[in-house]
Amino acid sequence: DAGVIQSPRHEVTEMGQEVTLRCKPISGHDYLFWYRQTMMRGLELLIYFNNNVPIDDSGMPEDRFSAKMPNASFSTLKIQPSEPRDSAVYFCASRHDSTDTQYFGPGTRLTVL
Amino acid sequence: SQQGEEDPQALSIQEGENATMNCSYKTSINNLQWYRQNSGRGLVHLILIRSNEREKHSGRLRVTLDTSKKSSSLLITASRAADTASYFCATDAMSAGGTSYGKLTFGQGTILTVHP
Predict the structure, then answer these.
(1) What is the structure's pLDDT at B25?
(2) How far is A42 from chain B (nearest CA, A)?
(3) A64 closest CA partner among A82, A46, A84
(4) Cβ(A27)–Cβ(B91) under 8 Å?
(5) What is the pLDDT of residues A25-70, one digit of tens each?
(6) Given CB 3.0 to 4.6 Å as the disulfide criterion, which of A6, A46, B34, B37 pairs with B46?
Protein backbone atom coordinates (compact mmCIF):
# COMPACT_ATOMS: atom_id res chain seq x y z
CA ASP A 1 0.00 0.00 0.00
CA ALA A 2 1.22 3.50 -0.81
CA GLY A 3 0.18 4.86 2.56
CA VAL A 4 -1.59 8.16 3.09
CA ILE A 5 -0.91 10.53 0.22
CA GLN A 6 -0.97 14.29 0.57
CA SER A 7 -0.56 17.00 -2.01
CA PRO A 8 1.01 19.38 -2.48
CA ARG A 9 4.02 18.73 -0.23
CA HIS A 10 4.85 22.42 -0.13
CA GLU A 11 2.65 25.42 -0.78
CA VAL A 12 3.67 29.06 -0.72
CA THR A 13 0.92 31.58 -1.21
CA GLU A 14 0.10 35.18 -0.50
CA MET A 15 -2.26 36.43 2.15
CA GLY A 16 -5.85 36.46 0.95
CA GLN A 17 -5.44 33.64 -1.53
CA GLU A 18 -7.41 30.40 -1.39
CA VAL A 19 -5.46 27.29 -0.48
CA THR A 20 -6.62 23.71 -1.01
CA LEU A 21 -4.84 20.77 0.56
CA ARG A 22 -5.59 17.24 -0.57
CA CYS A 23 -5.46 13.84 1.04
CA LYS A 24 -5.92 10.29 -0.13
CA PRO A 25 -6.33 7.91 2.82
CA ILE A 26 -5.24 4.29 2.89
CA SER A 27 -7.73 2.18 0.98
CA GLY A 28 -10.32 0.61 3.25
CA HIS A 29 -9.77 2.96 6.16
CA ASP A 30 -12.93 4.31 7.76
CA TYR A 31 -11.57 7.35 9.56
CA LEU A 32 -9.76 10.40 8.22
CA PHE A 33 -8.16 13.09 10.36
CA TRP A 34 -6.77 16.54 9.56
CA TYR A 35 -4.10 17.96 11.91
CA ARG A 36 -2.11 21.16 12.00
CA GLN A 37 1.38 21.31 13.53
CA THR A 38 3.14 24.49 14.65
CA MET A 39 5.97 25.14 17.04
CA MET A 40 3.74 27.21 19.29
CA ARG A 41 0.66 24.99 19.47
CA GLY A 42 2.02 21.56 18.67
CA LEU A 43 -0.14 19.03 16.86
CA GLU A 44 -3.81 20.02 16.82
CA LEU A 45 -6.73 18.00 15.51
CA LEU A 46 -8.78 20.15 13.18
CA ILE A 47 -11.54 17.78 12.03
CA TYR A 48 -12.18 14.11 11.51
CA PHE A 49 -14.50 12.04 9.36
CA ASN A 50 -15.99 8.58 9.80
CA ASN A 51 -17.28 6.93 6.63
CA ASN A 52 -17.02 10.29 4.85
CA VAL A 53 -19.19 12.07 7.43
CA PRO A 54 -17.67 14.88 9.53
CA ILE A 55 -17.85 13.82 13.18
CA ASP A 56 -16.01 16.53 15.08
CA ASP A 57 -14.93 19.87 13.63
CA SER A 58 -14.45 21.62 16.96
CA GLY A 59 -10.77 22.11 16.19
CA MET A 60 -11.34 24.09 13.02
CA PRO A 61 -9.99 27.53 13.91
CA GLU A 62 -12.58 29.66 12.17
CA ASP A 63 -14.94 29.91 9.26
CA ARG A 64 -12.07 30.45 6.87
CA PHE A 65 -11.34 26.74 7.20
CA SER A 66 -13.52 24.08 5.61
CA ALA A 67 -13.06 20.38 4.94
CA LYS A 68 -14.87 17.93 2.72
CA MET A 69 -14.76 14.24 2.05
CA PRO A 70 -16.79 13.58 -1.11
CA ASN A 71 -15.86 9.90 -1.19
CA ALA A 72 -13.88 7.30 0.73
CA SER A 73 -10.67 7.96 -1.15
CA PHE A 74 -10.38 11.74 -1.14
CA SER A 75 -10.56 14.68 1.24
CA THR A 76 -9.76 18.38 0.98
CA LEU A 77 -8.96 21.07 3.51
CA LYS A 78 -9.57 24.55 2.21
CA ILE A 79 -8.51 27.88 3.65
CA GLN A 80 -10.15 30.95 2.20
CA PRO A 81 -8.85 33.59 2.61
CA SER A 82 -5.46 32.52 3.91
CA GLU A 83 -3.55 34.52 6.51
CA PRO A 84 0.13 34.43 7.61
CA ARG A 85 -0.88 32.79 10.93
CA ASP A 86 -2.14 29.79 8.95
CA SER A 87 1.46 28.92 8.11
CA ALA A 88 2.05 25.42 9.47
CA VAL A 89 2.46 21.81 8.47
CA TYR A 90 -0.88 20.15 7.81
CA PHE A 91 -1.12 16.40 8.23
CA CYS A 92 -3.75 13.97 7.13
CA ALA A 93 -4.09 10.61 8.88
CA SER A 94 -6.37 7.63 8.47
CA ARG A 95 -7.25 4.49 10.35
CA HIS A 96 -9.37 1.40 10.03
CA ASP A 97 -12.31 0.92 12.35
CA SER A 98 -10.77 -2.29 13.69
CA THR A 99 -7.68 -0.58 15.08
CA ASP A 100 -6.77 2.46 17.14
CA THR A 101 -3.58 3.15 15.20
CA GLN A 102 -3.49 6.18 12.93
CA TYR A 103 -1.34 6.31 9.81
CA PHE A 104 -0.02 9.71 8.89
CA GLY A 105 0.76 11.23 5.54
CA PRO A 106 4.00 13.15 4.90
CA GLY A 107 2.30 16.50 5.45
CA THR A 108 1.89 19.73 3.50
CA ARG A 109 4.10 22.61 4.56
CA LEU A 110 2.06 25.78 4.04
CA THR A 111 3.64 29.22 4.02
CA VAL A 112 1.39 32.24 3.75
CA LEU A 113 3.28 35.45 2.98
CA SER B 1 -5.65 22.38 24.92
CA GLN B 2 -3.17 19.53 24.90
CA GLN B 3 -4.20 16.43 26.82
CA GLY B 4 -0.68 15.11 27.20
CA GLU B 5 2.24 16.94 28.71
CA GLU B 6 5.63 15.45 28.05
CA ASP B 7 8.82 15.58 29.98
CA PRO B 8 11.56 16.35 29.24
CA GLN B 9 11.06 18.69 26.29
CA ALA B 10 14.48 17.69 24.99
CA LEU B 11 16.85 14.83 25.77
CA SER B 12 20.42 14.38 24.56
CA ILE B 13 22.24 11.07 25.12
CA GLN B 14 25.07 8.96 23.77
CA GLU B 15 24.54 5.93 21.58
CA GLY B 16 24.04 2.83 23.67
CA GLU B 17 22.42 4.66 26.58
CA ASN B 18 18.77 4.31 27.53
CA ALA B 19 16.27 7.11 26.94
CA THR B 20 13.21 7.65 29.10
CA MET B 21 10.38 10.00 28.22
CA ASN B 22 7.35 10.72 30.37
CA CYS B 23 3.80 11.74 29.56
CA SER B 24 1.05 13.00 31.84
CA TYR B 25 -2.58 13.42 30.90
CA LYS B 26 -5.74 14.78 32.45
CA THR B 27 -8.79 12.66 31.67
CA SER B 28 -9.78 9.00 31.70
CA ILE B 29 -8.49 7.15 28.68
CA ASN B 30 -9.18 4.05 26.63
CA ASN B 31 -5.60 3.79 25.48
CA LEU B 32 -2.38 5.75 25.18
CA GLN B 33 -0.14 5.62 22.14
CA TRP B 34 3.40 6.71 21.36
CA TYR B 35 4.42 8.06 17.98
CA ARG B 36 7.77 9.07 16.49
CA GLN B 37 8.36 11.92 14.07
CA ASN B 38 11.58 12.28 12.14
CA SER B 39 12.44 15.79 11.04
CA GLY B 40 10.23 16.91 8.16
CA ARG B 41 8.21 13.70 8.11
CA GLY B 42 4.84 12.43 9.27
CA LEU B 43 4.26 10.65 12.55
CA VAL B 44 4.80 6.91 12.82
CA HIS B 45 3.01 4.74 15.36
CA LEU B 46 5.30 2.94 17.80
CA ILE B 47 3.22 1.25 20.47
CA LEU B 48 -0.22 1.28 22.08
CA ILE B 49 -1.06 0.46 25.69
CA ARG B 50 -4.65 0.02 26.85
CA SER B 51 -6.04 1.40 30.08
CA ASN B 52 -6.17 -2.06 31.66
CA GLU B 53 -2.51 -2.75 30.88
CA ARG B 54 0.43 -1.66 33.01
CA GLU B 55 3.41 -2.49 30.83
CA LYS B 56 4.08 -3.39 27.23
CA HIS B 57 7.19 -4.24 25.23
CA SER B 58 8.03 -4.01 21.56
CA GLY B 59 11.63 -4.69 20.59
CA ARG B 60 13.77 -2.05 22.33
CA LEU B 61 10.69 -0.14 23.48
CA ARG B 62 9.07 -0.48 26.87
CA VAL B 63 5.95 1.46 27.81
CA THR B 64 4.39 1.71 31.23
CA LEU B 65 1.04 3.15 32.18
CA ASP B 66 -0.13 4.28 35.62
CA THR B 67 -3.78 5.26 35.37
CA SER B 68 -3.93 6.29 39.04
CA LYS B 69 -1.27 8.92 38.37
CA LYS B 70 -2.46 9.54 34.81
CA SER B 71 1.04 9.07 33.49
CA SER B 72 3.02 6.94 31.07
CA SER B 73 6.66 6.47 30.25
CA LEU B 74 8.48 5.33 27.14
CA LEU B 75 11.87 3.67 27.54
CA ILE B 76 14.14 3.13 24.56
CA THR B 77 16.96 0.78 25.46
CA ALA B 78 20.40 0.68 23.83
CA SER B 79 19.67 3.80 21.79
CA ARG B 80 21.04 4.33 18.30
CA ALA B 81 21.72 7.45 16.29
CA ALA B 82 18.75 6.47 14.11
CA ASP B 83 16.46 6.90 17.14
CA THR B 84 17.02 10.66 16.91
CA ALA B 85 13.51 12.08 16.46
CA SER B 86 10.60 13.70 18.29
CA TYR B 87 8.44 11.39 20.35
CA PHE B 88 4.79 12.12 21.10
CA CYS B 89 2.29 10.54 23.41
CA ALA B 90 -1.33 10.56 22.32
CA THR B 91 -4.41 9.74 24.35
CA ASP B 92 -7.70 8.24 23.26
CA ALA B 93 -10.02 9.80 25.83
CA MET B 94 -12.96 7.94 27.29
CA SER B 95 -16.42 9.46 27.08
CA ALA B 96 -18.85 9.57 29.99
CA GLY B 97 -20.44 6.45 28.56
CA GLY B 98 -17.14 4.59 28.66
CA THR B 99 -16.59 4.59 24.92
CA SER B 100 -13.91 6.14 22.76
CA TYR B 101 -14.38 9.49 21.10
CA GLY B 102 -12.51 8.00 18.15
CA LYS B 103 -9.83 10.66 18.12
CA LEU B 104 -6.39 11.23 19.64
CA THR B 105 -5.01 14.21 21.54
CA PHE B 106 -1.25 14.66 21.24
CA GLY B 107 1.27 16.02 23.69
CA GLN B 108 3.93 18.58 22.80
CA GLY B 109 6.58 15.94 22.32
CA THR B 110 10.10 15.17 23.48
CA ILE B 111 12.99 15.86 21.12
CA LEU B 112 15.50 13.04 21.46
CA THR B 113 19.03 13.41 20.12
CA VAL B 114 21.31 10.37 20.16
CA HIS B 115 24.96 11.16 19.55
CA PRO B 116 27.09 8.53 17.77
Answers:
(1) 94
(2) 5
(3) A82
(4) no
(5) 999 999 999 999 999 999 999 999 999 999 999 999 889 999 999 9
(6) B34
Distance from the Cα of residue A111 to its chain's centroid: 15
Distance from CA of A107 to the nearest CA of B (A): 6
Cβ–Cβ gap B109/A42 under 8 Å: yes
Question: β-strand B61-66 against A74-79: which pairing, if any?
Answer: unpaired
pLDDT above 90 for B98: no
Number of C-beta neighbours around residue B62 at 10 A: 17
d(C-alpha B43, C-alpha B40), whole Å: 10
Whether residues A42 and B108 touch (CB distance < 8 A) is answered with yes
CA–CA separation, B53 and B67 (whole Å): 9
* A46 DSSP 8-state letter: E
In the predicted model, what is the mean pLDDT of residues A66-95?
Answer: 97
A93:B107 CB<8 A: no
User: Which pairs with CB-CB distance under 8 Å and at least 24 residues apart come from A71-76?
Assistant: A72/A25, A73/A24, A73/A25, A73/A27, A74/A22, A74/A23, A74/A24, A75/A22, A75/A23, A75/A24, A75/A25, A75/A32, A75/A34, A75/A49, A76/A20, A76/A21, A76/A22, A76/A23
- Whether A31 has its CB under 8 Å from any CB of chain B: the answer is yes
Phi, psi of B82 (to 5 degrees): -70, -10
Which residues numbered 97-116 in B keep a CB inside 8 Å of some CB on A?
Answer: 100-109
Residue B100 clears pLDDT 90, i.e. is over it: no
